[in-house]
Design goal:
- With 224 residues, the protein is mainly α.
- It has one domain.
- The chain contains nine helices and no strands.
- Helix 5 packs parallel to helix 8, helix 6 packs antiparallel against helix 8 and helix 7 runs antiparallel to helix 8.
- It starts with a helix and ends with a helix.
């Protein structure tokens, strides 16, 4: 037996070992795991973002009214009762209401970075899944073609088993399809979460600007 034959047998034996493990193909198990992980991350992020949402217009109006009444303590209390990233950022500015504009803005900027990082937490996992799932499927495709070619070389032209080659080719196509089936929803989910975070960031910027103006431009009038 030639060295090439030994190599082909080694590849075939390795394939059989992997394929028979736990009665499931390891590539499909990995792709299925990516699917489950992506679904869990998507639900967790949706729940977190829904919990973080507030009626921004109502919130800003209530803060503006109490500030005009020169009651910053009540404004801070409103922020604490409201909760969420926007309220936390505004609270950081209110705690420095007697400072100059730059210090107020810096405090709110730092708080904003912290809150945005919490909004983006785990989001990258969806992006990673969307990128690697097709690659994992492609790996399965390569292994399928390796099995098909090994079968042809070992069997010879007259004794090629159409069943074995067909099974290998079917496996190759199934793993590619499975990778795409996982990657496409993961990419859509990632885009959806990112779009919601971007809307949050826009609300944070506009609300913070409004509160900074209230705390600085009218500071002398309100005489904190």
């Amino acid at each position: 037996m030639t060295m090439d034959s030994y190599n082909i047998l080694a590849v075939t034996d390795l394939w059989d070992y992997v394929s028979n493990t736990a009665n499931w193909n390891i590539i499909l198990i990995i792709i299925g795991g990516c699917s489950v992980l992506g679904f869990i991350v998507f639900l967790e992020r949706c729940f977190h973002l829904n919990k973080a949402e507030i009626d921004t217009n109502k919130f800003v109006t209530s803060i503006r009214n109490v500030i005009k009444e020169k009651n910053v303590i009540e404004a801070i209390t409103i922020c604490e009762n409201t909760g969420g990233p926007i309220a936390n950022i505004i609270k950081s500015g209110l705690l420095r209401h007697n400072k100059d504009k730059d210090e107020i803005e810096n405090a709110m900027e730092v708080s904003g970075l912290i809150e945005i990082s919490q909004l983006e937490k785990n989001t990258k996992i969806l992006s990673i899944i969307a990128h690697i799932a097709p690659l994992i499927g492609l790996l399965g495709t390569v292994l399928g073609f390796m099995r098909a070619f090994a079968e042809m070389r070992l069997s010879g032209l007259m004794d090629i088993s159409a069943t074995n080659i067909g099974a290998a080719m079917e496996y190759a196509l199934i793993t590619t399809a499975a990778g795409l089936v996982v990657a496409i929803p993961a990419f859509v989910a990632y885009s959806y979460i990112v779009s919601r975070i971007e809307r949050f960031v826009l609300e944070i910027q506009t609300t913070s600007s409004t509160i900074v103006d209230l705390l600085t431009h009218k500071q002398d009038e309100y005489d904190f």
